Each structure stands twice: as C-alpha cells, then as structure tokens.
Amino acid sequence: MSEMLIKNGYVFDPISGIKGDKTDIAIKDGKIVEKVSSKAKIIDAAGKTVMAGGCEIHAHVAGPKVNAGRTMRPEDKLFRGSYRGGIVKQGKRMEMGFSIPSTWKTGYAYARMGYAFTNEAAMPPLLAPHVHEEFRDTPIIDQAAMPVFGNNWFCLEYLKNKEIENNAAYVAWLLKSTFGFGIKVVNPGGTEAWGWGENCVDIHDPVPYFDITPAEIIKGLIETNEYLGLPHSVHLHGNNLGNPGNYEHTIETLKLASEYKPKNKFGREQVLHNTHLQFFSYKGDSWGTFASAAKEVMDYVNKTDTLTVDLGCVTLDETTTMTADGPFEHHLNQLNHLKWSNVDVELETGSGVVPYVYDKDIAVCGIQWAIGLELALYAKDLMRVHITTDHPNAGPFTRYPRIIKWLMSKKAREATLDTMKRKEKIIKSTDLAGMDRELGLYDIAMMTRAGPAKALGLSNIYGSLKAGADANVAIYNLDATKLPTDPELIENAFSNTLYTIKEGVIVVQNGEIVAEPQKHTIWTKVSVPENAQVMRDIKEKFTKSYTVNLENYAVFDEHVHNPRAIEVEFSA
Amino acid sequence: MPKVIENVGCPYCGCSCDDVRVTVSDDGLKVLEVENVCAIGHEIFKHGSSDHRIRLPRLRQPDGSMKEISYEEAIEWTAQHLHKAKKPLMYGFGSTNCEGQAAAGRVMETAGGMLDNCATICHGPSFLAIFDNGYPSCTLGEVKNRADVIVYWGSNPAHAHPRHMSRYSIFPRGFFTEKGHKKRTIIVIDPRFTDTANVADIHLQVKQGHDYELFNAFRMVVNGHAADLPDEVAGIKKEQILEVSGIMTKARFGTVFFGMGLTHTDGRNHNIDIAISLTRDLNKITKWTIMAMRGHYNIAGPGVVWSWTFGFPYCLDLTKQNYAHMNPGETSSVDMAMRDEVDMFINIGSDAGAHFPIPAVKHLKKHPWVTIDPSINMASEISDLHIPVCICGVDVGGIVYRMDNVPIQFRKVIEPQGLLDDETLLNRIADRLEELKAQEA
Predict the structure, then answer these.
(1) I want to staple B425 with a disulfide (CB 3.0 to 4.6 A). Which of A113, B190, B195, B420 is the partner?
(2) Same domain, yes or no, for A174 and A33?
(3) Are B422 and B402 spatial neighbours (Cβ–Cβ below 8 Å)?
C-alpha cells in the first residue's frame, strides 16, 4: 500500500525522546515504520517542525449536553469571521459555530490544528447512542468517550458496601454497553444530590439517601480502575469546582489517590487524572478576595508521580459552559443570570449548560486566565500536565494555539495582561507577571501529544512517532532553530498545519481540508468473569427504575462507527 | 411458527415506548399481534403489513392520474427537480428515524435549499423560548423515580400521549416514589375539562388565552409578592393560586409538562418563556424541571440531529452553501409558503396537506411537490410524486429521540419487502444530485 517519507523536519517526539533533531519519519500502510522503499512519496519538511498528531485528553465535543448548548445558542453561530459560519466550506460539509462547533467543524478544526484523537469528557450512559451518532458525523479524528460513574446508583450502592469486585463487573459491563473508554467522575455524589436540588461541596458531605461520601466514591472508583487494569486512570472533576478558596479541597481530593499504585499493561503511571485544574486552584473567601493558588496546588502535583492533570485554561472568550456538574451550572446561572439548561439523567448523572463571557476587563476572569498559565509554568514534569480548555468551558479548543503562544512567550502574556482594565489587581492576585519561564516545542509536544496519550494508556497508538504507532503526523510552519520573535506567528503556525497526516493520509495541506478518511471509535473491552449478582442487580434496576428496557439500553453494534477495541484481559 | 419480538419501539407519539411485543408470521412478512401498546400504536403496526400499503413510487400523469414507477425513476425525478429549483423546501420528519434526518441534511445542503421540521407548526415557540431562556429539564425516569408533584399545562396526554401518565408521570412506582400516584399531587391547567383533568387532584380552568397571566401570578407568589395579587387572575381565584403555589414550593421534585395549549394560544413563545422562568424561580427553593410534550415518536430527532450538523434545530436556510442561517418567520415553512417563495416542496414523514393553512398549500401546489411517506395522506394525494418508504419501528430500525431527548434504538419487526428506508432513499438522491452538480461544473 502507500508509503510516505517526511524528510528533514525538526522532530519533537517525547515518546521516543527526539528533541528537535532532524529525523526522517517513515510511514507505511497507515503506521509509522523504521524505513520505506524508494517509491515512497516524499514530503520535504526542511525548516519545519514535525510532531505526532495531537491527542486530546478532555473536551466536550459530542453528546447530549454539547448539543443542548448548540440548540440553546443560535447566537453562537452568528458573526464569526468572514462568513457567519466563520469559514468558507473546505470539506464535504459546512462548518458552523464557535464555542460549540457543529460535529463537522469539530473534526475539521482539530485536523487543521494537527490533532488526530479526542476524548469526549462525559458521556451519560443512557444517552450513549446519541454520542455515537455524533461520532459518525465528526470527520477525520478518532474519538473515545468516557461514561460518567460518580453519581451512578449501581456504583454508589456497590461502593457503599465496599463491593469492589461487583463494582468492577458493573463498570466492565457499562463500558461494553456504551462502547465507552474509561471511568469519568464528575462532582461525585453532588450531581445525585442535585436530583433534590442539593449538592456535595466537600468530599466528606454525605450523599442524600445513599449514605456515602464523595471521598469514598473517588477511592472506590480508583480501586475499581486499578483492579480492572484499564488503560486510563480515573478521570476526575471533583467537588466544589469554581468557588473561591477551593484549593484546599482540591489538595485534599488529590491526596485520596496517594494510597494507590497503578496497575495496567498500557504504560500508564498515574492512578488519578484531575481534569481542568484551573477551576480547582482558587484562594480567597469571596469574589473580591479571589486569588491564585496555582503554586500550592502544583507543588502537590509536582511531588506526586501518580497524578496527571490538565489545565482548563481560560481563553478570554464568550463561550458556553457545560458539565455533568448540574448543581454547579445552576450556581453559575445564579451568578450571571443568562439562560440555563439542565438535563438530569435517571439513575446515572445530570448536566447543565450556561453561556459565559470571560471578559478580560473583569478581575476574576483575568485571574482565572493567569491561573491556567501559572499551573503550566509551575509544572516540573510536563508529561503529566496537559493543555486543555475543558472545551468549551474555559474557552473553545480552537484556542489551543493561543495558549501555546502564551506559554512559549512572556512577551505575549504581557501583551494580553496590558489590555486588561484590572491589570494591577490581577498582578497582585497571581504570580504570572513575575514568571519568566517560556516553554519550548518539546514541552508543547509533551503537553499536547505524548503526555495525554501516555495518561490515556494509548501511547502505542497516538501521540507518538515510534515505529508501530498510527501514522498521525502534524507538520507546522515553524523553524525550530529560529523561533519567530513575533509570538503571533507561533499562534498562526499551530492554528493551521502545513500538513496533517491521519493514518498515512494527508488530510490537511496548507491549512485546508483535503481528504476525509475513515475514523475510528476507540473503546475499552474488558473481559471479566460473568457476575450473576451484578446481572441480577442490573435486571432489577431496569425492571423497576429505568424508563428504557434493558435490551434497548446497550448501544446496538450498527450504531457504533468503525469501532476499535482496546482489549483488557482481566486477571484477579 | 409465529415469532414473538420483544422490546420493540412504537412509532406513534413522543412517549416512544420501547416495550412493545409484536408477533409476526413465520415468513416475517405479517404482523399478527401487538401487545403493550396503545390503540393508536396498535394501528400503526397493523398498517405496516396491510394489503393496502403502497409499495412503489407513484408519479402523477398529465391526465391527473397516478402511475407506478420504479425507485430509480423516482430518485432521478426528485434529483433533477431539486437541481433545477432555486429554493426547494424539505419539511416534515416527525415520523422518520435520525439516520433519515441526517441524510436529509446532506440532501438539502447539497441542493442548497430550506430544511424544516414539524416543530415549525407545533413546538417552534418552545424553541424560541429555549433560545431566550434555556431549558431546565430531565429525563422521564427522573420524573418516575422522584417526582411528587406533576403539572400538565395545556396538554392532554390521556388522548395525545396515551401511555405517558402510566409509564412516566402519575402512576408508576419509582425508586423514591414507591407509592405511585397515591403520593403524587397532579395539577392540570387547561381551559377544558379534559380526560387528563379528570384524573387530577386540582384542575385550574384557566381562562382561554390567559396562561401568561397565570404564570405571572405564580411567579409573584414564589418571589414573595403574594400580597399584591388581585382577587382573581386569568379566571382563577387568588386562594387557589396560593394553594397551588404552596404545593409547588413544597414539592420535593416537580415537573411541568406543557403542550400545544401553551405554544399555540395567545402568548405562544412568551408562555413557554415564562414557564421556564417559573421553573428557574422554583429551583431557588426546591427542585423543578420542565418538559415539552413533543408530539411524534421522533419529532425531537430533527432538532437534535440538525443542531449537531448545522447548529440550529429547525427553520434552516442552507441556500448559502457555506453556512446555515435560521430566522423563524423568515425561514419557517408556513411563512415561506404564504409568501410563495418556495419553488419545490418535499413533504417527508408528515402531512403538510393536512396541517398547513390552505393558502400556503395552494402556493406550494403551484410547484413540483414530492411526498415521501409510508402512507396515503392528504399530502401524498395532491403530490406530483409519492415515494413510499419503510415505517421506522416496523420495516426499518434506527435511532429516535423520545420527548426528553433520550435516544431509543428501534428495531424492525417485518421485512421491508422491496421498500426503501428514508436514509437509503435520501442518500441516493444526494448521490445523484452530486453527480448532476459535478456534470454542471
């Protein structure tokens, strides 16, 4: 089949330890290989930067709450760029929306930034067919979705009784039923409490009726995850997100993971991934005294090898917040009084959607912006710290190039800070202005590809240019030996690749979509022994409490688009 | 041996029940028996294998009669006319699966036309309110498992959604609601004494067209201004308003189900807007949710599918090719038809002939009219071309969205016997259209 050779580029590949050396990358039949024949198509990347295709660890790009946001916000489609869709049609289908782009735009936009994979951050199991329908209509990029477990009645009951084996059997069953990837936890216990209009703001707040605490849920799910040996760790959005003074809760939550060791065959070294850490790193006792706790939180992360985090950087845009943290969205709505959607999902989870304007002239927004960047600049091991915006919560994923610019250039950070009306207050409440660190391309490759892929347990497929990995490659118009002095050029280069190659096919050339090959749905197939107790419990809950029949609950094979299973052989 | 198929989805109302049992003949061609289904659903399954079913496309002849043609001819006719039309409109989709709705998006994006669904004449005002105010809702299982207060406002499920009350709202015993209807308070707000009002604990016979004022009165009480209420609002006595407000604020979990009685009486989208505001107010005190009583089994579907495809749920203008535009009033089917702006009409999975105003139908009838529908209906009988298709849930499966936007996976129970399903038909039209465009370019 097809062969390709990318010659003379400056290659940054943390998985194989290549730090900007001129290296040729060979591709055959959609995989990276050691060498190719003389018939290979040559791509000259002289003077350019070559990285593995980007790997997204946390973004809300498909499914019911994303789509509730799209439906609720027609204005998100208006007046963006030269056309109202923001772009002239390049691919097969039109591209619509800004903070909550259409599925088509999602696929195209990731591809243009050089990404190959994205991990949908929260899939309500009952609504899984919806997520898979959206995957079918999202072109080019491979996708996985994490079902949410932190408020699931089965888990609450099993974990209350410390039945890890049963919980594990249920998790394996649900991953199979939903074609899901890993264990997502959102405001454990708090979203169930929201079923009654309440919340759990502290990890020791008991969950109404179920009589279990968030701390017990988190620990129980970590134990379950390692018991099964899943590719990814527990992926946590903790309690008390977004409130002043929450950083102490955050550190207390992270400490819950300290007694566990990773157990898996996928090269993953963490037992807990704390997502969008920015939202959990706040000091102060009110919005008036709101300040950064990035240093305190990052100090703990730096010294704890069994943790990974992603940033959740605020990008100073008008965006759409959405999370399975139903009570938080209600709380946010009480602050900004914009429109509010809510979807509580029977026995499983909830979610909310509220538009939000991160106005650079509001001190709190400016401080949030600074915290996201500080977290990265305080980090010691960037393999464990990943660039995200918790898309679309802190900003759209299409702003990753801008975050990269800020991280790589102090000048760019200062320029943004200078535009802020409350600059003095932001300087006083954060450390950012005094930080001289500027990240390099190798750092960026760790934070956007190698690190997330490793944390997901997928580094043999994604985020890597090692022989055997999928041939996903991004070539950026950046000369690694003389980086531009104008930081805008860095943002431009990361916004539109010269080439994006997906499984050996050129999908983007000069920033334009040129091909739309088949994509994959990645899911985790765990083989566990049949558990009669769990199957009985499942039947009972479907008979008594669900409004959908058990036989119609698991996603039918015909509704899963081109699945690719990550197999886990369970051994007790 | 007849075969029993269980867990079948019902292609009638927005309840999208998925517990139907269908017995089919040994050869898989006939529906013999249907259980766990309301009277209307029963008829749809029976119709699926009726001898009267149309199985080939029919093209109108110069003498006014209809002549059977092949699917190939029908696809060619439709593609050619779409290619020629400047502003074709495809409307309907209450009764198609999501796969068909996605394919329709592809057809109309390729054709550069208008795309709209039945919400435009039913819950369109609800969309307008959602655009303004959001939608604090939940799945129906939340209602079943938690709700102790149910409000049906301007809706009559006893007739329109026959199993709604028994499966989801009033009668079921859920996890936290083991006593079923005995522990639930049912409030029906309707100017008519409907069969639903008949099972309510409280029926507020609101003055026709004055729903907005009654919502406003509840909001006043909930927000602490009861003292300022007049003695009567919208035909309801102050004492009763205070009583019902008390029930609402003391609920553990309440849900408002609303229907056409709000979206199509005076106030329209404003009624829904204030209903949502009341729900928001109540959430400061306790837990409340709100839900539109969507009519057809998959009329929520096109709103969902087109939101992820184009960013808008209905009234789509795809004529600009590079981007979609939505502006109800300008891009809504009936308004365009009334202004005679449309030069081709495709009616699919609905009956514009029966539901649109006569002047709108007269304008549409001046231009090529295609009906894609399993059944004979008023639209099919005035069409230039009628293309029969599979019935979702009978001869084809697929995903449908229940009224609470929960995706339900439907199954097929009998063989399609030569009929095409919506998705295949529409994709073949899109393929042909792409060829025609390529030839021209």
Answers:
(1) B420
(2) no
(3) no
